[in-house]
């Protein structure tokens, strides 16, 4: 059964359609005749997969792996150190809630806040702008995190002539780079990728065509409901079976090939892709989004002298504590493989970054129970 035939009047949580999709996936995987691994690179996808127990309805020979799709998780320790140092130096630092407890090399923004620094949790960059207008006596620094979806919002504020006491410390990341870093890793053996629908709303699905052509691996753009994800997996296995390294869009209600052109113009006017280190992984080419020269006056790294020495500990690596978040984000391990998971590393006292964010794989698996076998429920 083709994926398109299951999209007629699709109800995104219909158990009958879910069963049909699951059976169709099983047929495609059986026809491949081997164990296959596919990867999604989105924390929101992992939330839906774990919450609805989707791995339990997939065939045993299909491994569905989460890649480095949590922008908080890949924010490097020294980047957090910069934000902590600015707060300690007297700036009012604003950021999203998931970033508050993310550890730097030694301390987090929550630690700085507990010691009296001005640290505010905001739900949008617009709220950070409001704080700058409300507190003209403070230097307000917005620690901007997230992929293209949130970077576009940051760009919109930068383009709106914010007050002079407002600046941006960008740790934004770029989704295509997340797929590249996995594809280029000699240790991974991923045969197909599921791309994040919300980022593709901005970039369009056409952006993945060069990646598919270069790697010889198909890419499917998916939404976030259970049937969205199952339909994407089905389409991916169909392409794998046919040997077609193509890009398919199974989120047409939101994503087009071109994407949001106005948002792209704003994004690339304010930001430029640069090489940066992703926590626990490596240097990632074009993985970070930095402010362009035109917006250097808003760049906290250029506006302030950031002395991280008092808040830094170069030897306090998560890996030294037994954390394997880097391997988990590359798809080489899962949370259950970590000796710390659910023991010394829990949401209340996380050791690694993957347990901090609501989009981190360890946090999600801890919340929803990892890979529940729904067939045993009620027995």
List the helices and strands and how they pair.
Elements: H1 15-32, E1 36-40, H2 43-51, E2 62-66, H3 77-88, E3 92-95, H4 97-100, H5 109-114, E4 119-121, H6 125-134, E5 140-144, H7 148-158, E6 166-170, H8 175-183, E7 192-196, H9 197-203, H10 209-215, E8 219-222, H11 226-242, E9 247-249, H12 261-270, E10 271-278, E11 282-291, H13 300-303, H14 325-329, H15 361-368
Parallel strand pairs: 1-2, 1-7, 3-4, 3-5, 5-6, 7-8, 8-9
Antiparallel strand pairs: 10-11
Helix pairs in contact: 1-11, 2-15, 7-12
What report would you give on this structure?
With 379 residues, this protein is α/β, with parallel strands linked by helices. It is built from 15 helices and 11 strands. It has helices spanning 15-32, 43-51, 77-88, 97-100, 109-114, 125-134, 148-158, 175-183, 197-203, 209-215, 226-242, 261-270, 300-303, 325-329, 361-368, and strands at 36-40, 62-66, 92-95, 119-121, 140-144, 166-170, 192-196, 219-222, 247-249, 271-278, 282-291. The chain has a 5-stranded parallel sheet with strand order 2-1-7-8-9. A 4-stranded parallel sheet has the order 4-3-5-6, sandwiched between helices. A hairpin with a 3-residue loop joins strand 10 (271-278) and strand 11. Helix 2 (43-51) packs parallel to helix 15 (361-368) and helix 7 (148-158) crosses helix 12 (261-270). The radius of gyration is 21 Å and the shape is globular. The model is unreliable at 374-379 (pLDDT under 50).
């Amino acid at each position: 059964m083709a994926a398109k035939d299951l999209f007629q009047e699709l109800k995104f949580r219909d158990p009958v359609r879910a069963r049909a999709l699951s059976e169709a996936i099983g047929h495609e995987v059986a026809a491949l005749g081997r164990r296959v691994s596919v990867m999604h690179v989105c924390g929101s996808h992992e939330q839906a997969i774990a919450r609805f127990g989707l791995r339990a309805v997939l065939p045993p020979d299909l491994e569905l792996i989460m890649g480095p799709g949590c922008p908080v998780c890949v924010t490097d320790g020294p980047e957090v150190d910069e934000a902590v140092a600015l707060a300690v130096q007297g700036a009012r630092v604003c950021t999203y809630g998931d970033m508050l407890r993310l550890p730097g090399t030694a301390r987090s923004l929550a630690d700085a806040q507990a010691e009296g620094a001005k640290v505010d949790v905001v739900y949008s960059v617009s709220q950070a702008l409001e704080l700058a207008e409300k507190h003209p006596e403070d230097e307000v620094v917005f620690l901007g995190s997230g992929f293209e979806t949130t970077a576009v919002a940051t760009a919109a504020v930068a383009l709106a002539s914010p007050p002079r006491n407002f600046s941006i410390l960008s740790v934004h990341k770029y989704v295509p780079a997340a797929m590249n870093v996995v594809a280029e890793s000699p240790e991974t053996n991923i045969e197909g990728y599921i791309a994040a629908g919300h980022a593709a709303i901005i970039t369009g699905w056409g952006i993945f065509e060069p990646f598919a052509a270069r790697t010889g691996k198909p890419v499917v753009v998916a939404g976030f409901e259970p049937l969205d994800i199952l339909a994407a997996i089905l389409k991916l296995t169909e392409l794998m079976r046919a040997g077609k390294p193509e890009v398919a869009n199974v989120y047409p209600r939101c994503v087009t090939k071109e994407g949001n052109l106005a948002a792209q113009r704003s994004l690339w006017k304010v930001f430029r892709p640069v090489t940066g280190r992703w926590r626990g992984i490596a240097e990632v080419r074009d993985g970070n989004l930095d402010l362009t020269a035109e917006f250097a006056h808003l760049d906290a790294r250029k506006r302030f002298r950031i002395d991280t020495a008092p808040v830094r500990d170069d030897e306090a690596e998560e890996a030294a504590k037994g954390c394997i978040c880097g391997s988990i984000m590359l798809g080489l391990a899962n949370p259950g493989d970590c000796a710390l998971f659910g023991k010394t590393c829990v949401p209340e006292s996380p050791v690694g970054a993957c347990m901090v964010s609501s989009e981190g794989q360890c946090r999600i698996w801890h919340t929803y129970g990892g890979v529940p076998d729904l067939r045993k429920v009620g027995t």
